[in-house]
Amino acid sequence: MEAARIVGLLADPTRLRVVAALALGAATIEEVADASGLALKDVALAARRLARGGLVRRDGHALELLTDRFGAAARAAAEAEPAPEPLSEDPAESAVLAAFVRDGRLVSIPAQRTKRRVVLEHLVRVFEVGVRYPEREVNALLAVWHPDTAALRRYLVDEGLLSRAEGLYWRSGGWVDV
């Protein structure tokens, strides 16, 4: 079963409530109706559609959610997904960045200094060499990565990747792509 098919089956609010009731332990059409607050007719129609879709096994009034289909679909979708492009040519750096950067955003700021340094060297590339940025612009550039712009700004300055004077910031460290 494909993940898209499961999502399609669960896109209907009635079918979603039926699946939720089954996941929480309901085992018959009547129990699903009681747990979900749906009419018996609506539960029966949704159960029929879910059974045809391969997500529910139906035997008379008895219903069984085929929970193994969720895991199988997730594994199949993950296997079909192309491997993400490495964020660095260095495998060690790439591993650190993969752990903290998802979809172009920093999911958390590493607590360990060596990992934080790798992430900061990656982030500092948004700043052009030789350009002076007011704090508001630095915050706007960093907010694209993570909401705690003050912490990122402070770490970048503390690590010598950005310098600050008179309310302006400029890039003063890190690798430069040429």
TrEMBL record:
Protein name per the record: DUF2087 domain-containing protein
Organism of origin: Geodermatophilus maliterrae
Transmembrane segments: none
DUF2087 domain residues: 105-171
